[in-house]
Amino acid sequence: xxxxxxxxxxxxxxxxxxxxxxxxxxxxxxxxxxxxxxxxxxxxxxxxxxxxxxxxxxxxxxxxxxxxxxxxxxxxxxxxxxxxxxxxxxxxxxxxxxxxxxxxxxxxxxxxxxxxxxxxxxxxxxxxxxxxxxxxxxxxxxxxxxxxxxxxxxxxxxxxxxxxxxxxxxxxxxxxxxxxxxxxxxxxxxxxxxxxxxxxxxxxxxxxxxxxxxxxxxxxxxxxxxxxxxxxxxxxxxxxxxxxxxxxxxxxxxxxxxxxxxxxxxxxxxxxxxxxxxxxxxxxxxxxxxxxxxxxxxxxxxxxxxxxxxxxxxxxxxxxxxxxxxxxxxxxxxx
Length: 335
Ligand SMILES: NC(=O)C1=CN([C@@H]2O[C@H](COP(=O)(O)OP(=O)(O)OC[C@H]3O[C@@H](n4cnc5c(N)ncnc54)[C@H](OP(=O)(O)O)[C@@H]3O)[C@@H](O)[C@H]2O)C=CC1
Ligand SMILES: O=C(CO)COP(=O)(O)O
Known about the structure:
Layout: E1 7-11, H1 15-26, E2 32-36, H2 40-49, E3 68-69, H3 72-78, E4 81-84, H4 91-94, H5 100-103, E5 107-110, E6 115-116, E7 121-122, H6 123-131, E8 138-142, H7 147-151, E9 156-162, H8 165-172, E10 180-185, H9 188-211, H10 215-236, H11 246-257, H12 262-271, H13 276-283, H14 288-303, H15 308-318, H16 323-333
Parallel strand pairs: 1-2, 1-4, 2-3, 4-5, 5-8, 9-10
Antiparallel strand pairs: 6-7, 8-9
The structure holds NADPH dihydro-nicotinamide-adenine-dinucleotide phosphate and 1,3-dihydroxyacetonephosphate.
1,3-dihydroxyacetonephosphate (13P) is lined by residues 113, 144-146, 199, 202, 251, 254-255, 260-263, 288.
């Protein structure tokens, strides 16, 4: 098999980027890794002490200091594969100054689970329209996997999706370790949209917990959520897919139930009465579902898929609807 990927630049300095750095450097396949993050102080700290001071700080960083920088352009130039790992809301800002020419001939991997605001596009569409990235050169990393469990080396499964299954297989071979298993898929759209939606359902799950519903209700909420997710992905990209696969149902379950989920934690705080701003400040991490539900609301104006859970979360986060009342109304629509 022809090898396409020898040098990978990871773009982003948060928890998941740090976990991806760990997986890529624990994996034995030959490759060189570069790492960009916007925070210059974190670059200095990592270069000196070999740990990210702000996220997953227990993880030992094995990327050479010379390959870590807050200057993106040279790092993109240096690599043949770019792994995007900045929250979708900040992706445009992170890529400011980067042109389609800079991405020419490179393989692009998205580990982002969000929608680019204003464009309301998932990452594959955004990279295609703004940077001329062909879908044949594009991959997605998804699946039920929290960065915190990667740091603990707990067994996890990732799905690598691409139209080019051979390419996805090559990239998957760069992530496999004792604690990471990979699955290859050709469903880029379903994988991306599924990951976006499950974040919103995890917020709903957190809100329900916050306002006082128990596990019994939550299980009904999540079984409705997977049906809502399936309705939407089947509308935007109708192919034969099994929604029970781990990239869809698995990711929904882990995010809706895990103590590590940012989205669930954020929702729980909203249910308990925090404002959006105070919940965001308290968390110090990004709940993608907050931004995504606004974009989804716009996107679904065209598709008109029945999405009562997304609409309830949208009303609470963007229309100041009461979580208690909105969840009571939602409960009437679930089955
Ligand atoms: N965490 C996880 O387990 C997983 C996350 N993902 C996805 O990975 C992506 C990155 O999330 P994750 O690593 O968890 O993020 P974290 O919540 O761990 O970190 C937040 C990241 O966002 C950056 N950021 C925050 N505010 C801004 C801003 N105003 N402008 C630019 N950058 C900003 C931070 O940079 P700084 O530190 O400089 O403030 C930091 O890199 C998301 O799409 C998420 O859904 C996917 C799978 C698992
Ligand atoms: O995507 C994730 C797990 O698969 C991470 O979800 P959270 O952003 O809610 O932590």
